[in-house]
Amino acid sequence: MSEITQDRTRTSARRDTIVLGATLLALVLVTGLNVTFAVAVMPNLAGADDLTFVTTLQRYNDNPVFPLSYTVALVLVVLAPVLLWGSGDRAALRWALVTLALYVVVVAVTAVVNIPLNQEVDDAGLGSATGLADVRDRVEDAWVAANLVRSLVSVAAVGAVTRALTLRAAR
C-alpha cells in the first residue's frame, strides 16, 4: 500500500470515527430526553392535577431542544453509513445500518404517536376542568406507552452505534 493510500485510509478512518462519535453523542442526548420522560417526568405528572399535567406538557412542547436534538441525531445517523459505505469496514457499516433502522423506529413513533398527542395537548384550552380531564384521558396512557417504546429502541440504537464506533476505531 502506498503512503498516499495509507494517509487516505487513516484520514477516512479518523473522519468516520469522528462522525460515529458525534452520532453517539446525539443519540445519547435523545435517549436521555426520552428516558427522563419515562422515569421522571411522566411518573411525577401522573399524580398531578389535570391543569398541571396539561400546562407542564405544553411548556415542554415549546422547548426547541427536542426537535433540534432529534434532527441533529437523524442527520448524523444517516451520514454515518453513507461515509462508511466506501471504507471497506463492513462490520462497522452493518452496525451503522442497524443504528439507522433503530433510529427510524424512534422517529416514526415520535412522528406518528407522540407529536400528534403533543399537538392535542397544545390545542387544549385551559378554561374547562372537564376539557382538561378529557385531553389527559386521551393522551396520557398512549403517550407514556409510545415513549417507553422509543426509550427502549433509543437505548438499543446507542448500543448499535457504540459497536460501530468501536469497530471503526479499531481499524
UniProtKB/TrEMBL annotation:
Q: Which InterPro entries match?
A: Anthrone_oxy (IPR013901)
Q: Which Pfam families match?
A: Anthrone_oxy
Q: From what organism does this protein derive?
A: Jiangella alba
What transmembrane ranges does the database entry give? 18-45, 65-85, 92-113, 142-165
Q: What superkingdom heads the lineage?
A: Bacteria
UniProt keyword terms in alphabetical order: Membrane, Transmembrane, Transmembrane helix
Quote the protein name from its UniProt record: DUF1772 domain-containing protein
